[in-house]
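Customer escalation, tier 2.

The customer says the design service returned an amino acid string that "doesn't look like it belongs to this structure." They asked us to rerun it and document both sides in this ticket. The original structure tokens are below, unchanged.
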């Protein structure tokens, strides 16, 4: 029987590609799968729940109200002159997205193990689907912030007036996406081999919130404090402070965004390379 040439087949299985080949073309080719997995994640989260999609707005709203009462009114940690609800919502929305992408991406390959071990597709697709589904939630919650800001302005209780800093918002969104995807892919690559790492990641992300200016703004920390040093070393800090500066006009050293941008790009590229290298053994260890 004559042998068929490689070009006669739809898919040709070849030896593992080098780690620097990130297969962007393959991701685009399987964009339909990415869309389907994204829609599956969106519907699965709120299936058989009482409030359904309303949880998208209920969660950050309740959290912001609690933070505004406990840390704003009682502990006096919020910015004077700014409603505590808006002050904390401006930080909770990007932080929630960052934390959700990392914790959910950590288990996405295990969750899709049956598909991963049976059919071929770029293994990064489930992780990107998790990022995209949480991105939709992030955008809805960001719109919720603008709704409440407009309500405050109309009611006359707070004269919300965004300035030119708002133009930085697209940059900040790209930064939080890049950093979230990068950290998430690193975690996903490691948790396929070390399952208990997913529990450590969930706990670590909770602790990281206290080393980020979500609760305590950077302006409330003494410049010579050791705590401030670690806060400023955290690449999430300029992003959180940037969201507050862009949305509320609070003081922000916009020059520090270069640090967050550099770390985000480095982490993203390193995570793609690590993921590409680790995926050779995914089917054996999942």
């Amino acid at each position: 029987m004559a042998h068929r040439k490689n070009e006669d087949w739809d898919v040709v299985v070849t030896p593992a590609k080098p780690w620097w080949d990130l297969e962007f073309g393959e991701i685009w080719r399987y964009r339909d799968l990415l869309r389907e997995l994204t829609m599956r994640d969106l519907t699965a989260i709120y299936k058989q729940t009482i409030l359904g999609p309303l949880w998208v707005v209920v969660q950050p709203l309740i959290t912001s109200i609690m933070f505004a009462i406990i840390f704003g009114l009682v502990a006096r940690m919020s910015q004077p002159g700014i409603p505590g609800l808006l002050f904390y919502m401006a930080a909770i929305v990007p932080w929630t997205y960052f934390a959700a992408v990392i914790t959910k991406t950590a288990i996405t390959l295990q969750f899709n193990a049956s598909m991963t071990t049976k059919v071929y597709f770029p293994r990064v697709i489930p992780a990107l689907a998790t990022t995209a589904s949480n991105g939709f939630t992030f955008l809805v919650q960001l719109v919720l912030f603008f709704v409440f800001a407009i309500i405050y302005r109309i009611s006359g209780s707070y004269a919300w007036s965004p300035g030119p800093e708002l133009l930085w918002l697209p940059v900040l969104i790209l930064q939080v996406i890049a950093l979230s995807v990068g950290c998430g892919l690193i975690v996903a690559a490691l948790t396929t081999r070390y399952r208990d790492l997913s529990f450590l990641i969930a706990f670590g992300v909770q602790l990281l919130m206290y080393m980020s200016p979500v609760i305590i703004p950077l302006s409330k920390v003494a410049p010579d404090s050791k705590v401030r040093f670690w806060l400023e070393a955290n690449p999430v800090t300029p992003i959180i402070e940037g969201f507050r500066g862009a949305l509320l006009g609070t003081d922000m050293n916009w020059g520090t965004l270069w640090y967050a941008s550099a770390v985000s790009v480095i982490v993203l590229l390193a995570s793609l390379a690590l993921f590409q290298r680790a995926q050779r053994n995914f089917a054996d260890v999942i």
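Tier 2 assessment: The sequence is consistent with the input. The longest helix spans residues 125-155. The chain has a mean pLDDT of 84. Sent an explanation to the customer and offered a walkthrough call.
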